[in-house]
Amino acid sequence: MDWGRDGRDWPNREHSRFVRHRPHLWHLQEAGEGPIVLLLHGTGATTHSWRDIFPILARHYHVVALDLPGQGFTRMGARQRCGIDGMSKDIAALVDSEGLLPDVIIGHSAGAALGLRMLRDLKRPPKALVGINAALENFKGMAGFLFPLMARLMALNPFSASEVSRWLGNAAGVGAIIGGTG
């Protein structure tokens, strides 16, 4: 995604900033005062996922939302850092360097699994971890074989995450997916 083009009317744009930190160029949104709440979106999503809850939480908390590496407006600096272990270490280092160690982590889908993994990497664990539709279990049956294989193949392509994010950001593409579900 391109900030100059796609970010013009991005939700909560006024709270966006970019931070270069080991090895990525991160897009963060930050607002409010109080205990720090870190919002982690799921695979192929962006800070857009939190557009409605972000300002509500910011009334009582210091809210930080970020785009994961290679997704949304965060530019991935190293392809091998897009797995859960690399992302966990990179996000932990980012929030530490920015003085944003979270008191609470809220993760959606794979963001919940990432938050759980971050418990090993943060200098101080959060007081709470909340998972919304948390993707914590392995898939069963054929999906258990195919989905991890597809994820590994996509991880080999440095453009996969940004392409999926771009495609899912297209109303026609999302409409086609929804239309195909019956």
Automatic annotation (TrEMBL):
Annotated Gene Ontology cellular component terms: membrane
SUPFAM superfamilies reported in the protein's UniProt record: alpha/beta-Hydrolases (SSF53474)
Occurrences of domain AB hydrolase-1 (ranges): 35-159
InterPro entries from the UniProt entry: AB_hydrolase_1, AB_hydrolase_fold, AB_hydrolase_sf, BchO
Pfam families the UniProt entry points to: Abhydrolase_1 (PF00561)
PANTHER family per UniProt: HYDROLASE, PUTATIVE (AFU_ORTHOLOGUE AFUA_2G14860)-RELATED, MONOACYLGLYCEROL LIPASE
Protein name: Putative magnesium chelatase accessory protein
Organism from which the protein derives: Rhodovulum bhavnagarense
Lineage: Bacteria, Pseudomonadati, Pseudomonadota, Alphaproteobacteria, Rhodobacterales
